[in-house]
Amino acid sequence: MSNLAIFIAVFAAAFIFISPLLIMFLNTFKPLNEIVAFPLRLPSEWSLSNYAAAWEKLDMLNTMKNTVFISIFAVSGIIILAAMTAYWSERHPTIFSGIFSRAIQFSVLIPFATIMIPLVKVMKFLHINNTIPSVVLTYWGIGLAFAFFLFQSGVKSLPVELEEAARIDGCGHV
After folding, report:
1. Under 8 Å CB-to-CB from 174, ≥6 apart: which residues?
2. How far is C-alpha 143 from the geometric centre of its chain's CA atoms?
3. Which end of the chain is more exposed for a tag (fewer CB within 10 A), N or C?
4. Where are the alpha helices (DSSP H) in 92-125?
5. For residues 41 and 26, what is the distance between their CA atoms, to the nearest angstrom?
6. How far apart are CA 164 and CA 151, in angstroms?
7. What is the CA radius of gyration of the chain?
8. What is the pTM of this model?
């Protein structure tokens, strides 16, 4: 097959996959009655009123503020908790840390669909359903196991001698 035929086939496939997105984007500049009547036509008059209406209706500033807040607290909590627990379980090898590590690692195998309903019931029981702290706690619960697994691998690859050298130089345990 020649390069031209391959290019045409790839271009046609890309057009097929991108065309719905293009149609959707072009329809954002039309009023609703024009979208329903002529969804595949270019807008008769270009307007940004749909964007302004969506901005107001969705309260985008508050939504972005909540997203930033949730992202910062969820990610920082996961990083701090996973780093501490992975370090402890790797540097203090006891039977309890081994059981703890295996339990965390096996929890990655539990599909989220199996814990959705119990999670909602617990949040409702604690009266934090539909709140930002409940979202942050949920993200912690979902992300901690995988982050623990990654941090534990990182701690394993870190030589103990490096910590000893840092302690000699005056670093504390923290």
Report:
1. none
2. 9
3. C
4. 95-107, 112-125
5. 9
6. 20
7. 26
8. 0.71
Distance CA 52, CA 47 (A): 10
Looking at residue 111, the DSSP 8-state letter turns out to be -
| Tokens, residue 58 | 């969705």
Helix axes 60-91, 95-107, angle to 10 degrees: 150
Query: For residue 45, which amino acid is it?
Result: E
Is there a contact between 88 and 97 (Cβ–Cβ < 8 Å)?
yes
Task: Specify the amino acid at residue 20.
Answer: P
Q: How far apart are the first and last CA of the chain?
A: 62
